[in-house]
């Protein structure tokens, strides 16, 4: 699996600046890097939604990170100059030589 980790990525995290009754607000103007290195990035899917009110395009990726990588569902992933949100909880896989952390990443345009 290590030979498959050829895609440079950076995982960033932002501190919570506000925690109120309607949710948490994070300071994305000052994120910190929690991981920077090689991963295996695979396409998941991409699709567009068109309506008279708006037009959006979404892209989703699977990102396989080395085992023990510190990544959280509120983090962001930078890949090929684009920023993606981590979608859901990371999945840890520890079986023989296939040890890794898998996350889903997504971004929206427009």
UniProtKB/TrEMBL annotation:
<protein>
    <recommendedName>
        <fullName>Phage head-tail adapter protein</fullName>
    </recommendedName>
</protein>
<dbReference type="InterPro" id="IPR038666">
    <property type="entry name" value="SSP1_head-tail_sf"/>
</dbReference>
